[in-house]
Write a structure and sequence with these properties.
This protein has a domain of 41 residues. The protein is mainly α. The protein has three helices and no strands. Helix 1 packs across helix 2 and helix 2 packs across helix 3.
């Protein structure tokens, strides 16, 4: 794969529910965004703070398409 074909990590505008973080991660890694959404939901279980914090940081750090 050459440099022009490589995808950069971006928040998705097409496959988004809230901010496109999971959709962008799914596109970047070539897997279904469902798995990232499931991981975020699991991270919300122990009181919510870990999942919300991870998502908020990703929302701020990962640029939009």
């Amino acid at each position: 794969m050459n440099a022009q074909q490589r995808h950069s990590l971006r928040r998705s505008k097409r496959d988004r529910i809230l901010a496109g973080v999971c959709g962008g991660l799914g596109e970047f890694f070539g897997v279904s965004p469902f798995w990232f959404r499931l991981a975020m939901l699991i991270a919300l279980i122990p009181g919510g703070v870990p999942g919300i914090l991870i998502y908020a940081i990703a929302w701020i750090v990962i640029p939009s398409e």
